[in-house]
Structure formats: C-alpha cells, structure tokens
Amino acid sequence: MLELKSLLKGLILLFIVTTTACVPQNRVEIVKINKDYSPLFYITKKPTKEDVLFYKALISSGIKQDQINGKVLLGGYFYKTGEFKRAKEILEKTRDIKDKDVRYARLLWLFDIYLKENNKDKIHKVLKEALKLNDRNRLSNLICSRYPLNLTGNACLIAIYNQKFSSKKDKNRKINVYKNKKIKKKKNEEKITNILKLFMRSDENKKKVEEDSTIFNDKKICLNSESFDKNEVKGILYNIKKNKLDYLTEIGDNCDGRWYFSEKTEELLDKKGLDKIYFGIDYNEIFEEIKNYLELNNIKRFYVITNNDLNITNDNITVIDATIDALKNFFVTFNDEYDNATDYYFVFLGDSDESIKFVPLLKYYAKDPRLIKVIVGTDIFKKEYLDENFYEYFKGSVIVAPICEICDKLRKDFFKGFENFYNSKGDFYSVLGYDIVTFIDSELNNIYGKKKYLSGIIGIKDNKVYRNFEFYKILSKRRIKLLLN
Questions:
Q1: How far apart are CA 319 and CA 315, in angstroms?
Q2: How far apart are CA 281 and CA 77, in angstroms?
Q3: Euclidean distance between CA atoms 93 and 214, whole angstroms
Q4: Of these four, 159, 204, 383, 418, which has the most CB atoms within 10 Å of its CB?
Q5: What digits encode the pLDDT tens for the residues 437-472?
C-alpha cells in the first residue's frame, strides 16, 4: 500500500473505484474527497463510466463547492455522452459556482444544448454570462470544435449565435452580396478576355506580358489560409504592426506576392527563388536531443509516447501510441511487471496541449506514480505547467522545448503584447508566424543575426529551420532549472 501524504489528482478516481467496490450493494458509503482534484482535468477529459462514481462522491461530500462542482461535472458527463435532457436538468439547477473553469464549462454546455433546442432567449442569457468570463474562453473549444468555424474563444460563440439566429434583413444582405459577386465575376471575365487579346498581338508584346507575369511584390506575403483568424496569420500581422513594417498580406492563390505561406504545411515559399522552407517542429530532432540527454545520464531503456513518425531502431526503446486506449492497455501489463525499486522514464513527444492531456494520465494509470519520470519534448514550455491545475502532474518533469513562455523578457513581452492586441492567448503557431516575418525582413534587408527569432531558430539548412532546444526541470511552482543538455 502506498504511503503518500497527498494522493495525486488523477489517482483519486482509483481510490474511489476501489472503495466503492468493497461496499455491499445495499449500503451507501460517503467517500471523502481529497481537495487536490482538478476540475479542469474532468471538464476536458473524455467521459468514462468510472467518472460518474467520482462525481457522485463529490455530490455526497459535506463540502458545498465540491457538491456544486460534482453536479456540474455530472451534467457535463451527460452532455458529452449525448444525454442532453439529463444534462440540462442538472446544469440549470446548479448555481453559486466559485471555480471559474467549472462556471464557464457549465455555460458552454448549456449554450450548445439551447442551440440544439433553438431557444434564443436562454442561449442569449448564457452567452452574456460567458462573455464576462473572457479569461476562461480558451475552453470554448469544448463546443467550437463541433462547428465548422475558424474562430476561437468567445468570438466563436458569437459567430455560432449569429449564424443560428441571423435576422431576415441579414439574409437579404447576403443575397445582395451574392449578386454583387456575380457582377464582379462578370467584370473579371471581361478583364480576362482583354488580357487574352494581348496574347494575340506581336511576339514582342507576348514576351513583355510573360515577363510582367513573373514580377512578384517583395513586400507582399500571400497566405494559404481560410481566414485571418489563424494564429500563424495573427503572428504575421502582429509582427508587421508591432515593428511598423510596410509589408502587405493577402489570402488566396492568385496573390502576386513573392512570399507564399501555407499554415497547413507550415512552409514558406519564395516564389522568386523557388525555395520552400519548413518552419514547423521536427520531432525527430527533439527526440535525438532527448535520447542524447538520457544516454549521458546512463539511461538506455525508456518509453516513448507519440503520434509522430520517429526514426527508432533501438530495441530498448518502446513506442506507445498517444491515445488513451493504448496508454491504458500498456499500463495493464506494466503494473503487473514493474520493479518497485526502479525508476522508469517516459518521453512524451507532441505539442504542449497534448502534453497537458497525456502526462496526467501517465501518473493516473501508473500503480506507483513516484517511479514514473517524465520528459516532455514539445513546442513550448507553457506557464500552465506550473498552475494549480497541472503542477502536481508536472512536478519533477523535464520539459524540452524551443520556446519558454515565462523564461525571458523577449518571449514574455511577445505573449503579453499578442494577448493585449488580439484579446486571445498566443501559442507556438503565433510565434511561428512572427518569425516568418523576421525571416523575410532579414532576407530582404540583409540583416541576418540582428533580429532574434522567438521560436529558437539558430539556422536554416536543406529547406528547413533548425532550433535550439532548451531543457527545463520543474522544481516547484515558482522555480524551474535550466539543464545543460
């Protein structure tokens, strides 16, 4: 039996399941709830039947806020499983919620339920409440991901509301816009006809037209994106605005700019030089850095959790798919065979949002979480790793990333400025967009090395960027240590 003074947040559920299994069916026993549980973890996780036991234990506790949290989480469980009537009944009755994440999640779930019911009055009320909790709008993806919109945060909720309840006047305006598009299309067709006439002139004029068609605007960045609301695009625009640069941006394939950035492939094409550079994260590169670090510490056997394609040929390295089922199945066998005198090293490779999802599960599924040593290879060291919702999971972990959100003034200023400018939180992709402009500006003005890249870029070779990956160890909520790798 483990002698832990404080159970890790995820292990609470294991305690509840074990305790409940020992209670006769004709008797109800109230389980005491450890205050270290994370409401955010249960808000965002996929629903399982075991969750219901935990939520009912919260509701049965003698602590008011735990009871309230339990009711909202139970309502959320029914929402996630599609039992909207039961979810609405619970969520509508639950009030006086102190935890802001729980309060915002309740509003999101009710928002979507009312949307399905076409209840304009009630949806307007919960939307108004949600807008007041702007600092929690990162959770909007709980329902925004269900709709084909390229928006996040409260802007997504407003767009969904407007799309559902747009007035007749608005619909008429859309028809007029469509008519205008038809007129514009006709004009474009006439323009194309005139251009074709040019090609019917002399060979000299043909040559001139062909030469003109290869002239690109050095100061224009073309964007292969569905909207200006993508964080990569926002990062590009923020750099231009912040540094008062005279670059133009345009969405579409017919853009005449020299630079063509695809947010889907994270590549920048120089249409003049025909060079295409990949600016995304190379997880093989991070893996090699981590493998070298482990070898220096005489650790040769370890486990890798990832969905990325890695070049692994070593039999001492076990790869586990980054899915909940794969991780759960792995620990069924592992927990029966582990040596309680040995430390086991797990390397997670994936973006920071995924790491926040999977690292807690490592500690949850492991029979003895004290033996689990975690190294996270990711895109960004997020300050969320140190907050009250996730710190216990990440304490003692090593984070390997090219960006640290909280470690130096340059990045701190960027994230603060980006959030103030857009009223939404920046991420790796916003930094990537910012660095794209830094690269273009350096190319055009021959100022290599004078501007520092935010995403750790130290060089470009073979059409890809290479980054410096720093190793950080989390010592406490206020202390992280930079390791020599």
A1: 10
A2: 35
A3: 65
A4: 418
A5: 999 999 898 876 677 899 999 988 888 899 999 999
Q: Which two tokens stand for residue 293?
A: 């670090």
How large is the angle between the packed helices 153-164 and 100-117, nearest 10 degrees?
Answer: 20
Nearest to 113 by CA among 89, 141, 139: 89
Q: Cα dihedral sign for 160, 165, 169, 171?
A: positive
Q: What is the DSSP string of 364-391?
A: HHSSSGGGEEEEEE-S-B-GGGGSTTTH
Q: How far apart are CA 128 and CA 122, in angstroms?
A: 10
pLDDT in tens, 55-97: 998 888 878 988 999 999 999 999 999 999 999 999 999 989 9
Mean pLDDT over 120-142 rounds to 82
Separation of CA 17 from chain center: 31
pLDDT band at 14 (very low <50, low <70, confident <90, very high): very low
Would you call 469 helix, strand, or coil by DSSP?
coil
Work out the pLDDT band at 148, boundaries 50, 70, 90: confident
Q: How far apart are CA 112 and CA 351, in angstroms?
A: 28
Give how far Cα 330 sits from Cα of 156, 254, 275, 300, 353, Å: 38, 50, 44, 20, 22
Neighbouring CB atoms inside 10 A of 402's CB total 25
Closest of 99, 64, 73 to residue 12, by C-alpha:
73
Measuring CA to CA, which residue among 110, 159, 103 is closest to residue 134?
Answer: 103
Cα end-to-end span (Å), the chain? 37
Is the pLDDT score of 435 beyond 90? yes
